[in-house]
Each structure stands twice: as C-alpha cells, then as structure tokens.
Amino acid sequence: MLFKNARIYCFQKDFDLLAMVKGLKEKRFVECNAFDLKSTGWVPPSKASENFLALPISNDAIVLCLQHQERPINSKAVKQEVARRVAVLEQEQDRQIFRAEKQQISDDVMAVTAPNVLPVTTQIYGLILPNKGLLVVAASSNKQADLFIKTLRLSCGSLPVALPVTKSHPEPVMTNWLTMQAPESMILGNNCKLNIDNSAVTVKNEDVTSSAVIEHIESGMKVSELELLIMHKCSFVLTSELYIKRIHLDDVVTEPALEAETTDESFHAEMLINAQVVAEIFDKVCLSFNGLEGPAEQPVNVDQMTEYQRSKD
Fold first, then answer.
1. What is the pLDDT of residues 106-128, one digit of tens each?
2. How crowded is the C-beta side of 142, counted as CA atoms within 13 Å?
3. Residue 253: exposure state from Cβ atoms within 10 A (0-12, 13-18, ≥19)
4. Which residues in 156-182 are b (16+ Cβ under 10 Å) and which e?
5. What's the predicted TM-score (pTM) here?
6. SS3 180
C-alpha cells in the first residue's frame, strides 16, 4: 500500500497515543446491516496484526486504517418513486400530501430500496509521524481527508491538528520558480497548472519554463500546482494548499518492499517507505517556503509507543 496522495496535518500540542487507542476500539468498524445506508469505523491496518487498530511501524510511524461503507442509493430514482406514490395518494384520496407524510413515504421507499443495494467499501490509511509531529492522510479527495479527520476527532474526543501554514505563501513562490530560480533541493517536473480568477491552464509533459508558460505568468496567472522531483527518490505534484498528490517512487526506493518474503513484511516495508518519503517531501517543501508559521510538536513519545507495543505482545 504505497501512498499516491498525502494530505498533511500538523499537531499543535502533545497527543496521547494510549487515549487514542482506547477511542479507536470504541469506534471499531461494524458492517452495514440490511437497513443501514452507511457505516464508518476503524479496522486493523494489516490482516497479520489484527490486535492493532493503531499499528506501530518501528518508532517512526503509527498506521491507522479507516473503513467506510456506503450504499450507492440512486437519489434521483428515490425522489421519482416518492413523487409517484404521492401523486397516486393525492388522486385516490382527493387531498394534498404534506411534508410529514411525504417524509414517511420517503422513509418507506428507502426501507425497500436500501437492502437491495450492495454497499461499497473504501479504506483510507493514515500515518502518525511522532518525531515530525505530523498526521498524514492518504486521501484522494478533500472529502476523504475530512472524513478521516472527523472520525479520528470523534474517536479521541479531541484532535489538535491543523493544516500547515508556511511563512511564504506557496503560490507566488512556485510561480517564481518558473520565472527566476528553481528550489535548491528539488527539480522542476514537466507538469503544472496556472490559475487566474475562474480561468485555468494545464501544462502536461512540457517544459514548464517555456516561453508559452512565461507568457501566461506575465498575463497575471499564478502556479497552483507543480510537479517536482527529488533526485533518485520520487516525483510528486505539489498544490498551493500543500496537498501532495500523484506520488511516484523510484524503483530503488521500493526495493525493500519487493524483497519482503511475506505479505505482512511487505506491508510494514511499504508503510515505512511512505513515512520516510512523505517526511522528506514535507521537510523540503517547508524549507522552500521558509518554514512553518507554527512549528509542530512531537505528539507521541517513544516511551508511550513502547508501552503500547508491550501491551499487545
């Protein structure tokens, strides 16, 4: 499970791992029953480590896995069936059907419809990086990231995290990289996106410092997404919101996972790779934007992690 996307949050103060573990147990995932439209909860990240809802990967990372199950109900079809039943009743009984009765009809339609629709299951992985004070959510959308954060906050009672804010705003800095000087620790890729007001230009597989791109910038457009490379490590797309997406790892980075002898060893190796790569990307990105406004603190100490691991042995 190598991450393709990473939404990063910074812990604002110390975080109690043991309290979190207790909260995860109380919000363990339960399958949708016949009448549930959706269900969300925590599952063991690795099938080989079913005792762990929060799985330590050495002292560098703790892995979480949120499972969300939802029945893809066709809302348009439901509305049409409700409207049909309302029309029939109004005609047969020669009276108007009001809101409360319409809601009851809607509930009746859902009760018949839901059991016949198979639920779709999605898993969202997250990493707590203790030494960096970061929470990484491998979400492909803001909706998934928000669901992960919301559920973890409900499970723990509180979750002192916030999206990172850098001292220099990313958009003008990334724009300057194309017109003046690229970041010292990273290499410009061949893809970017430029925006101004409601207009956007996407550049794919082209020189992002070409005269055509510079003309767009001179017209007032700013870079909102930019592909970057770390030599012999990875490529990724960085957005102006510090969202990291389309991560592609070089073969040399993924070798430890490929050499693993068991599925469990491969999973652990991949999660350790995720932790190391995302941490390095974040360090280089923050450095390029002159650091964070509010530095993250270490959320989980080593002693607490060791105590948790021993309790499961």
1. 988 888 888 888 889 999 999 99
2. 5
3. middle
4. beebebeebebeeebbebbbebbeeee
5. 0.85
6. coil
